Amino acid sequence: xxxxxxxxxxxxxxxxxxxxxxxxxxxxxxxxxxxxxxxxxxxxxxxxxxxxxxxxxxxxxxxxxxxxxxxxxxxxxxxxxxxxxxxxxxxxxxxxxxxxxxxxxxxxxxxxxxxxxxxxxxxxxxxxxxxxxxxxxxxxxxxxxxxxxxxxxxxxxxxxxxxxxxxxxxxxxxxxxxx
Length: 179
Known about the structure:
Blueprint: H1 4-16, E1 21-25, E2 28-31, H2 37-49, H3 58-76, H4 85-93, H5 97-108, H6 112-130, H7 135-141, H8 147-158, H9 162-167
Antiparallel strand pairs: 1-2
Helix pairs in contact: 3-5, 3-6, 6-8
C-alpha cells in the first residue's frame, strides 16, 4: 500500500471478508486473530482484484516498510526531520541502516537515496502544479538547502528547470507506486 486510498481499499476488503483488524497502515494490516491458509488466499485474491499484492516473505515486507517510511515522510509529513534520515529509518524499523540500504539496493536495483530523491521530485512537481508556494517555500518545505539545490536536483531528474516545468502543466505526474 503506497497511498491513503490503498488503506481504504484494504479495510474495505477485510470488512467484506468479515475479518476484524486492529490497524491498517501503509504496507501492513494487523488482524485481531490468526487466519487459515484458505482465508489468506481469499485476502490475496481480493487484494489482487484491486491492484494490490499480499506479501509473504520477510525481505519483501521490509522493503515495503522502507518505501512506506519514505513515502510517509516525503508526501504526508509537514514536520522537519531533526536527525539524519539513516538514523530515523534505523530507529523506525529496528534494523541497522547498512543492512537496510544493502537489502534495498539488492532487491530494488536502486539506492534508498535515489528512491528518496525520486519521491521528493514528485512532491516538488505536485507543489509546482498547485501553484500555491514559491520555489523558496517549496525548497524549505522539502528540506533542500536552498532553491539552487532544489533546481539542480530537479533538472538532473526531470531534464527541466522547476520554472520550465511549471510552464508545462500538461506534463503529468507519476503515480506514487510507479516511482
